[in-house]
């Protein structure tokens, strides 16, 4: 058997294997996600300058880090590609909050449990904890994941089905 006789099956590659995808800077729009300084961000403001003496229009963008809320800015030629993160949102039912602030969650689609996330710090975490302790018919949290990070970014009261 030579080195070239290996039977490889590339058809079963995971479609979401990459955490980012390239997109031309001029095609980006306000409200979309983009990587700035290695962080996944949501674009909040964009402007394009005219072509200069070197022939490239520049795109100025301001964006907020989706996990920390920190404002980041970037300037890039409009013809260049920028990395855009693959951002996924998923809803879970909140089952328990441990003493060390880790939460126990249940996937609403598969009923699988997830125990590796912490309750967010600050006001968001405090309001989720207060609503859970009041037990308003169940709490749904929204978990956002991108580039291998995930966090609880919002919540709502589970709707009553009559």
From TrEMBL:
**Name the record gives this protein:** Eukaryotic translation initiation factor 5A
The subcellular localization recorded is: Cytoplasm
Q: Which GO terms describe its molecular function?
A: ribosome binding; RNA binding; translation elongation factor activity
**What is the taxonomic lineage of the source species?**
Eukaryota, Metazoa, Spiralia, Lophotrochozoa, Mollusca
**Can you give the residue ranges of the Translation initiation factor 5A C-terminal domain?**
86-156
Write out the PTM section of this UniProt entry: eIF-5A seems to be the only eukaryotic protein to have a hypusine residue which is a post-translational modification of a lysine by the addition of a butylamino group.
Membrane-crossing segments per the record? none
Q: Which GO terms describe its biological process?
A: positive regulation of translational elongation; positive regulation of translational termination
């Amino acid at each position: 058997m030579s080195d070239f006789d290996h039977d490889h099956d590339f058809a079963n590659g995971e479609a979401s294997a990459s955490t980012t995808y390239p997109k031309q800077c001029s095609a980006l729009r306000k409200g979309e996600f983009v990587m700035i300084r290695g962080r996944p961000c949501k674009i909040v403001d964009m402007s394009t300058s005219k072509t200069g003496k070197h022939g490239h229009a520049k795109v100025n963008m301001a964006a907020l880090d989706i996990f920390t809320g920190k404002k980041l800015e970037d300037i890039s030629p409009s013809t260049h590609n920028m990395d855009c993160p693959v951002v996924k949102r998923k809803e879970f039912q909140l089952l328990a909050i441990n003493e060390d602030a880790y939460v126990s969650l249940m996937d609403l689609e598969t009923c699988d449990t997830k125990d590796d996330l912490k309750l967010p710090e600050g006001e968001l975490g405090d309001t989720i904890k207060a609503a859970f302790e009041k037990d308003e018919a169940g709490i749904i949290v929204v978990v956002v994941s991108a580039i291998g990070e995930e966090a609880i970014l919002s919540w709502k009261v589970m709707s009553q089905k009559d």
